[in-house]
Amino acid sequence: MLWPIVEIALFIEIGSEIGVAATILWVVLSAMIGIWAMRLQGMAAMVDLQRAVEDFRDPGRPLAHGALAMIGGGLLVLPGFFTDALGIVLLIPPVRSALLGLLGRRVRASAAASARGSRPGWPPEQPHRPPVIDAEYVVVEETDEDVPPPDYDHPDAGPTPPQGPGGRRGPPSGWTRH
């Protein structure tokens, strides 16, 4: 709620000093610079991310730097002097490194607190999963010449018909191939 008030106040103060045309020009130019910065920083972040993966390093840091740079460019696209100032600050690599260091310590402290058990139920329990049985099978095709057809009306007249679950006798259920 405070952010729009700050932006309006800055527009009034700075706009009265530099004029309406210069203020509009500032807003348009900062948006164009923001779009250009997002494209440039996005490509640089992708290159850094690829290098990190190729060198078997943690890609988290280049990814976080790229995200902060994209946020900085996005803030430049938004109209306003305060957002422009924040966007320009986020485009400076040493500032991003310092911010990531600060955030990293906070995340580590939060993870340590979680490991001590301050958050019950974390990590969430996994539901029981049945074990996977890996097997190989072979489909054996029987020809009509090998086995005479069963006579289901007279069970004593030929080979024993296949038994289903529970000792049920009868024709195949259709759920399996015979």
In short:
The protein is mainly α and 178 residues long. Helices cover 58% and strands 0% of the residues.
Topology:
Layout: H1 2-18, H2 20-54, H3 60-77, H4 81-90, H5 93-115
Tell me what you see in this structure:
This protein is an all-alpha fold and about 180 residues long. The protein contains five helices and no strands. It has helices spanning about 1-20, 20-55, 60-75, 80-90, 95-115. The longest helix is centred in the N-terminal third of the chain and has 35 residues, at about 20-55. It is elongated, with a radius of gyration of 35 Å. The termini are far apart. The model has no long low-confidence stretch (mean pLDDT about 80).
Shape: elongated
| Termini gap | 72 Å
Unreliable stretches covering 5 or more consecutive residues = none
The helix/strand class is: mainly alpha
Number of helices: 5
Rg over alpha carbons: 35 Å
Strand elements, count: 0
What labels would you give this structure?
mainly alpha
